[in-house]
Automatic annotation (TrEMBL):
It is a multi-pass membrane protein. Residues 18-429 form the Major facilitator superfamily (MFS) profile domain. Gene3D superfamilies: MFS general substrate transporter like domains (1.20.1250.20). CDD domains: MFS_ShiA_like. The keyword Cell membrane applies. It comes from the Bacteria. InterPro entries: MFS_dom (IPR020846), MFS_sugar_transport-like (IPR005828), MFS_trans_sf (IPR036259). It comes from Leucobacter exalbidus. This is Putative proline/betaine transporter. May be a proton symporter involved in the uptake of osmolytes such as proline and glycine betaine. Its main location: membrane.
């Protein structure tokens, strides 16, 4: 497109459409992701593995299929980042949405180990790999759909729409399994567990309709011809390696810290040494997800006032100081305090999550922004999100069940995220780069507050 083409400023109407498209799509994809996670914990050990297998080993194998997706995310980021940087954010996001829906629906019709033997878990792993590819390409594109469509001084707020998708998707998934559990364990294992997976096809239809109606982002649509790269990945590795690695560090808290403060804390409370009723933590986590969903957009809006970096600093550091009383309350078996600190740490973690879309979008130039963001996020999710539970488990084994070793590891995640935020570069060209609405008019959106 010619650089002389006049471009209209981003409006709130355009931004709201982009934000809602990001929210609906990411909510559906995270719903699919968390439906699998829930089933991996309570269903798959009974369905896709031999009946005579030790229950602990069956659960371990089931979580192994869950972990596969984390390590597919970087590849998904590379593949769909290339599509998004070459063909546009909209087609890339349409493909990821369809892939996720197809993979999730297929899980809902897979025969179990009793019917097809070893092919059951093999096909399950293949479906999970496709889910990982789709999620790896989803977040970066959805973030850019929201952020690049937003007016100046509103970038972080509209970027927060993408971030709301995670807690909303988690709520939908856990709510679905909670409702089906009312049918009884026998019905749940026999057939009811398939319903949330099959329902995905309906949600994908809704998401496809919403994304079909949204416009391509102005930044991509008006890229100067000379800026286009034949291979965005090579450009990213050559020119963006440093910010990619800084983004990798930033993810340490919102991925690794999040897993420890939620899933791993739940497992710790269920150990023989603590022996808390699992419903205590589950109930607190469910309410915390709802609270997180409510506070994400206000926290994101705060980033437009004091800077995305400042919000990230507060979220990262405060999360470390909340994990300590959370552990103490679990050890004391104080249910009221457990609920307070489970909810509170989800609020503080929102500070490390809500402004993430805008912060990372501002780290990269348009030429390979989708690829660079997705690769950075995918690597962070794979390492921090995929390995943190294993590292925390190993620390408990080495220290004889001393959870303070895990708190120390949480501290290392805090330091990593702080360093990433501190040195993250911030560029101003989140507005269209040509025509009457020049990128320089958007410099007010970059408020780093270092």
């Amino acid at each position: 497109m010619s650089s002389s083409t006049a471009i209209q400023p981003n409006t709130h109407k355009r931004a709201l459409k982009g934000g809602m498209a990001a929210l609906v799509g990411t909510s559906i994809e995270w719903y699919d992701f968390y439906v699998y996670a829930t089933a991996a914990a309570i269903i798959f050990p009974h369905i896709f593995f031999p009946e005579d297998l030790d229950p602990a080993l069956a659960t371990l194998a089931s979580f192994g299929t869950y972990a596969v997706a984390f390590f597919m995310r970087p590849l998904g980021g590379i593949i769909f980042g290339h599509v998004g940087d070459k063909l546009g954010r909209k087609p890339a996001l349409t493909i990821t949405l369809i892939l996720m829906g197809v993979a999730t629906t297929l899980v809902g019709v897979l025969p179990g180990y009793a019917q097809i033997g070893i092919w059951g878990p093999i096909l399950l792993i293949l479906c999970r790999m496709v889910q990982g590819l789709a999620v790896g390409g989803e977040w970066g594109g959805a973030s850019l759909m929201a952020v690049e469509s937003a007016p100046p001084k509103w970038k972080t707020f509209y970027g927060g729409f993408t971030q709301v998708g995670n807690p909303l998707g988690a709520l939908m998934a856990t709510g679905a399994f909670w409702a089906l559990s009312l049918l009884g364990q026998e019905a749940l294992l026999a057939w009811a567990w398939r319903i949330p997976f099959l329902f995905s096809i309906v949600l994908i239809g809704v998401g496809f309709w919403v994304r079909y109606r949204v416009e391509e982002t102005p930044v991509f649509a008006e890229k100067v011809e000379g800026q286009e790269q034949s291979t965005p990945l090579l450009f990213a590795l050559k020119n963006n390696w440093s910010p990619i690695m800084l983004g990798f560090l930033i993810i340490a808290m919102s991925s690794g810290g999040y897993v420890i403060a939620t899933t791993f804390v739940q497992n710790y409370a269920d150990t023989p040494e603590i022996g808390l009723d699992p419903t205590i933590i589950l109930g607190a986590l469910t309410v915390a997800s709802f609270v997180e969903m409510l506070v994400t957009l206000p926290i994101a809006a705060l980033g437009d006032k004091i800077g995305a970096k400042m919000v990230m600093y507060i979220g990262v550091l405060s999360s470390f100081f909340v994990i300590i009383p959370l552990v103490l309350s679990i050890q004391a078996k104080n249910v009221a305090l457990i609920w307070v600190f489970v909810i509170l740490i989800r609020i503080t973690l929102s500070g490390a999550w809500a402004p993430l879309s805008t912060l990372m979008a501002q780290m990269f130039r348009p030429q390979s922004r989708y690829t660079s963001m997705s690769l950075s996020y995918g690597l962070g999710a794979a390492v921090w999100g995929g390995l943190s539970p294993a590292i925390a488990s190993l620390l408990l084994v080495i220290t004889g069940g001393n959870f303070w070793s895990v708190v120390g590891f949480f501290g290392l995640l805090t330091i990593a995220a702080y360093i990433g935020v501190r040195f993250a570069p911030q560029h101003s060209d989140l507005a269209p780069v040509t025509g009457s609405f020049n990128a320089r008019t958007d410099t007010t959106a970059v408020n780093t507050h270092d």
